[in-house]
TrEMBL record:
It comes from the Eukaryota. The chain crosses the membrane at residues 16-37, 58-80, 92-117, 129-148, 168-196, 217-240, 246-269. InterPro entries: GPCR_Rhodpsn_7TM. Residues 27-266 form the G-protein coupled receptors family 1 profile domain. This is G-protein coupled receptors family 1 profile domain-containing protein. It is found in: Membrane. Keywords: Membrane, Transmembrane, Transmembrane helix. One of its GO terms (molecular function) is G protein-coupled receptor activity. It is a multi-pass membrane protein.
Length: 308
């Protein structure tokens, strides 16, 4: 459906996609609010910087919440009016959607890479105050990619993303997801192999902590990456101008998977309640990656005889 479509036309399958998308969006929103609130309370009460196993899900939850809000505007408008947003407003909404998508996917790659460098290469990158050195390249990269397709955003069948004749935005999106997925898988495998090998060689207790921390961080990242796999199918179908209800449905539901999945993971790892006691706080600091870099250096440079 093009931008010049008759506004009274109801897209086929709207009565199926909208209810299911709404249900998943509600679960996603509740999950994201819970995660953001809980980690914010932890940061507020401990008066300390969040460690990586708290920062990673927090960053993803914040990114996912922004993306959810844009999708909410898209979905509510389509539900109320029975057709997507029209004209220039739709192009702006499409550009914002792509920008937030780019930030979310690029964040996954950046966190995978920093974890790999920290564990496998013993390279600690100073991310600066509030990790601005992490976010600045992500924002600039996403902005550049967004500007490349600035004339191609518009009305799709159920939402505002890219116009029906546009293949540039879909192609960039597919390439970005595939590249970040490959980077993430490589970093994930190499990181866990490095920690596992160090644990087998030296048996140091710090190695066990590293393994837990690395596994938790990489699982958070993988959940977000897997969120975008069904979207790749939708984008490839869009490139070849193939439309099918199940493709739209899979893409619509999958974008809620990241928030729900990471919230479930966080509860599994951290249980239902934050721990603030001095003993729990110290254990949490160690198991959350405060000493992660130090432990890797120790386990890779000492033996069983001289390791404490």
């Amino acid at each position: 459906m093009s931008d010049n479509s008759v506004t009274g036309f109801q897209p086929p399958g709207l009565d199926i996609i909208v209810p299911l998308a709404t249900i998943f969006s509600i679960f996603n929103a509740v999950s994201l609010i819970y995660l953001l609130t809980r980690i914010s309370i932890l940061w507020w009460k401990t008066k300390r910087s969040l460690t990586m196993v708290h920062r990673v899900p927090f960053y993803f939850a914040f990114s996912e919440f922004l993306f959810f809000f844009v999708n909410l505007v898209n979905g509510v408008y389509t539900t109320v009016h029975q057709f997507p947003i029209q004209g220039e407003a739709c192009k702006i909404m499409g550009g914002i959607t792509f920008f937030l998508f780019g930030c979310n996917v690029t964040l996954s790659g950046a966190l995978s890479l920093t974890t790999y460098l920290r564990i496998c290469r013993e390279i600690v990158i100073d991310l600066g105050t509030y990790d601005y050195k992490l976010f600045l390249p992500i924002i600039l990269t996403s902005l550049i990619l967004t500007l490349i397709g600035d004339k191609n955003y518009g009305q799709s069948q159920f939402w505002c993303f890219s116009s029906p004749t546009d293949t540039i935005t879909a192609s960039i999106s597919v390439l970005l997801i595939i590249i970040i997925l490959l980077i993430t898988l490589y970093c994930y495998i190499m990181t866990l192999m490095e920690v596992y090998n160090a644990l087998n060689r030296f048996g140091a207790k710090f190695g066990q902590v590293d393994f837990i921390v690395a596994r938790r961080i990489t699982f958070y990242i993988l959940i977000v990456i897997l969120e975008w796999v069904p979207v790749v199918i939708y984008l490839v179908a869009k490139i070849f101008h193939y439309e099918n209800l199940w493709i739209y449905l899979a893409a619509t539901l999958s974008v809620s998977f990241g928030g729900i999945g990471n919230t479930i993971l966080y509860i599994i790892y951290e249980k239902w309640r934050n721990r603030y006691s001095p003993t729990a706080s110290e254990n949490n600091r160690r198991s959350s990656g405060i000493e992660m870099t130090r432990s890797v250096v120790i386990t890779s440079s000492c033996t069983n005889e001289n390791c404490s």
